[in-house]
Structure formats: structure tokens, C-alpha cells
Sequence to fold (100 residues):
Amino acid sequence: MEVCVNEKKIAVIGLGPAGGIFAAHLAASGARVYGIDPWEEHSTETRENGITITHLTSLHTPLREVSTHLDLLQEKEFDYVVIAVKTPYLPAVVSNLKDF
Fold:
């Protein structure tokens, strides 16, 4: 996969199937991606080993900036924030983002 230069800073909240694939492709494009996922083991695994996608397309991308807390967003400025969480969690995420 060809990597292009993309200097955007993007936060992806939720690194499950949709958010993880989206974050991997953004990172592969050269964007600075910050992942937020509340599942500690998943966040640690993603930070240490990146994200691997197989089947229709193959991609392995490091994603070093991963946190379990939205507090990361207060410390940085982003060009975009992507919310990729299941619907029941959306009100809590949006409520927490209002303060930013």
C-alpha cells in the first residue's frame, strides 16, 4: 500500500471493528492518529503491536498513541474527532466531549 503524506491530527474514539479499521487506514495515509478505547487490554495490544487488517485488503499499521481515557483529548488539538462507538455508549461519549 502506498503511503502518502497527511499531517492531520485525528482522534478516533472506539477502536472496535469500524473504528479500528478506520484508524488503521488513516494512520497508513500518514495522519497522526490518537486512539481512545476503554478496554485496557485492547488499548495496550494496539499501542504495542498496531492494527492488522486481513482478508479483502491486507494492512499492518502501528498506532502508538492509544489511551483508555478521553483525557488525552484535553491535552492536544485535533483536526478531526471520529466517534466510532456502539449506540448505547454514544450519549456518554458526547457528554464527555462537551467540555472540550
The two ends are 35 Å apart (CA to CA).
